[in-house]
Amino acid sequence: MSQQLAEVETLFLHEARSDYTVVANRDGKRVLRGRLELKETSAGPRPGKFRVIRDGEDHPRQPDEFVDLARAAGRIRISEQTSPENRARLKEMLDGYQLEATAVRTCRRCASDGRYGPITSEDAIDHNGELICRDCARRELERELSYKGEFTGAAEERLEELLYESGDLDRIVSLLQGGLDPDLTKYDEVSANVDDVSPVRTEDLDLHPDLSSHLQGRFEELLPVQSLSVRNGLLDGDDQLVVSATATGKTLVGELTGIDRALKGDGKLLFLVPLVALANQKHEDFEDRYGDLLDVSIRVGSSRVNDDGNRFDPNADVIVGTYEGIDHALRTGKDLGDVGTVVIDEVHTLKEGERGHRLDGLISRLKYYSEDRMETHAGYDGTQFVYLSATVGNPEWLAEKLRATLIEYEERPVPIERHVTFADSREKAQIADKLVKREFDTKSSKGYRGQTIIFTNSRRRCHEISRKLRYDSAPYHAGLDYGRRKKVERQFGNQDLSAVVTTAALAAGVDFPASQVIFDSLAMGIEWLSVQEFSQMLGRAGRPDYHDRGRVYLLVEPDGVYHGSMDRTEDEVAFTLLKGEMEDVATHYDETAAAEETLANVVVAGKKAKRLNDRMIGEVPTKHALGKLLEWNFIDGFEPTPLGRGVTRHFLAPDEAFFILDSVRKGTDPYDIVADLERRDDEE
C-alpha cells in the first residue's frame, strides 16, 4: 500500500449502487482499484469500510488507509455521473480532512469497470445515447469489426480516424452495416484543375478544307491539350506522346492529324486500341463523323478457330483496329498500303504482362513497315506516330524511348469525390442499388441524370448485379455479341439506363458519360488492379459537358480475396490504390516474351530482326532468344520454319505451341485442343 500511495497521481471516485468505486492512477495507468462505503458520524460522513480489489477478490483495509490514499493523491476527481446528493456526501467527507475534489465528466463504462476515463466535449464519443471515452469506443468498434471479418491495419486506422472525427460510434456501426453517410464514406476529393492554356481557334488550323469545315461545325476552339499538341508540331508530322486525364480530348489529337493527312493524300490512318469493344465503338464514331469523306474499315483480332480478322479492307483510308488485329496483318504479310498516321490509344498497356510485350513489338514492326515502304515506294514520306494515355508514371522516360515529343496536360475537368465503404459480397449489390438509385434520381445543372458504371471482376457477376438493381440497367462485357453491346451503348447514351455493370471493357476507354463509378471489386479476374488501371477506371466518373462532379465508391470486403494466389486482402488493396502513385510504364521480357517477339520480328523483317528488337521499349535478350528459336525449330537461320510461321501467326507462346504439337501427336480432337488452350488462358 505504501508503494501505491507514493505512485498516486489521480484518485477517482464514482457512485456504484450502495458504495463508491475507488480508482488510483499513475501515468494514465491504474495502480489500485477498491470500494468505499461511507458512514454517518456526528462530524458528518466518514469512511466506513474500505476494500481493495485484487485478482477479482476483495481485501479489507482500515478506513484510515483510504484517507492516507486521498492525502497522497495529486488530485481527486468525482464523476459527474455520481448523483448530486452522493457527490455532496463525498465532498463533505473530504472537506473533513481538508481535501478538495472536482466533479468531472467521465466515461460511465470505464467507471463501471473500475477505470478512470475523463472525457471532454472534444474527445467524447456518442454511443447509444451516452458519451463514452475513445478507448471504450475503440473496443466497441473492434467488437463490431470482429463480426465483419478480419480488417487490416490500414482499414482499422481509417475507421478509427472516422470515429474520432465524427465522435459518433453509432454512425460508424451503421457504415459497417451498409450505411451510406457521405460525410463518413468520403475519403477525399480530387479537385477540378484546369490549367490556363490559350486555346487555338479551329478556323486558324491549317487543315484540309473538308476537315476544317467539319471541325468548325463542331466547335470554335480546341481544348487545352489539343491546343498544346498543335502548338508543339502535331500538324507538322512530329511524333507525340500525349498524357492527359480521361475526358480532356486526347482522341481528337490523333484524329486531327490522321484525318488531315488521309484527306491530303499523305497516307491512311491506323487508329489502334487494346479491346474489340473499344474498336467497335471507335469504328462507329469514325464512320459517323468522316464516312462521307473517307472509307473507314475495322480490323480486330482473329479467332483461333475462324480467322475472321482477314475480312477487312486494307485499302481503306481509315482502319480502326485492335493491337492484335493489325499485328496479325503484319505477321501474315498483308499490304496495308501507305500508312500516314498511327495512333496508339491506351499506350500504358506497354506495362501489362502478355499484352505489353506484344504492343512493344507491334510498335517496332509498324516503324519497320513504314521505313521499308519508304525505301520501295517513291513519294511516300513515312508515318507519324501519336501515343495516347491518361495514366503514365514516367512520361519523360517513355517519350524518350518512343522518340516522341511529350505533351503532358494535368487537368481534371470536374472534381471527383472518392468514397470508401465496407461490405461483404452479399451486401455489395444492395449498396450498389442504393447508390445507383440515388444518382439516377438527381440531375446535374446541365440537365442530365446521374448514371453509373459498376466495375466487377467476372462476367457472371455482371449479370448477377444487374438483376439486383431496381432501376433499368444492363451487363456489358466482351462475352456479349456486337449487336447487344451496341444496344447497351445506345440506351446508356439516351439515358434509358441507370447503370451498366462491366468488367475491363469499359475501363479501357469505351465512352459512357457516367457521373458515378462503383467498384464492386478491386480485382480484374484473379489479379488486383494496378494504380494505373484504378485511375483509368475512376476517371470515367464525371464529364464536363454533362456533370458538375464525379463520384467514385469503393465497396470493400474486409479480408476479401478472389483467388488463392492473392497475397493481399481487398481492404489492404483499397488504401494502397487510394494513396498510390502512378506506376512507371515499362516492358519487361522473360524468355517466353523475348522468343515470341523475336520470332515475330524474324517473320516480318528477316535478318533485320535485331534492329527491331534493339529499338523496343524493353531490353530484349536477342542472342538468347535466337538460340532458343533455333533449338525449338521455329527458325532456320533468319528464316521462319513453317512451324515458326504458324506459331507467330496465331500469337502462340512457346509452351502453347508445344502443347498443341503434343496433343496432335496423341490424336486429340482439334476442338478439344482449342478448348484446352482457352482453359489454360483462364487459369493463368
UniProtKB/TrEMBL annotation:
Keywords, alphabetical? ATP-binding, Helicase, Hydrolase, Nucleotide-binding
In Pfam terms, one family for this protein is DEAD
Domain spans labelled Helicase ATP-binding: 231-410
Q: What is this protein called?
A: DEAD/DEAH box helicase
Annotated InterPro entries: DEAD/DEAH_box_helicase_dom, Hel308_SKI2-like, Helicase_ATP-bd, Helicase_C-like, P-loop_NTPase
Q: Which organism is it from?
A: Halorubrum distributum JCM 13561
Q: Report the GO molecular function annotations.
A: ATP binding; catalytic activity, acting on DNA; helicase activity; hydrolase activity; nucleic acid binding
Q: Which residues form the Helicase C-terminal domain?
A: 430-600
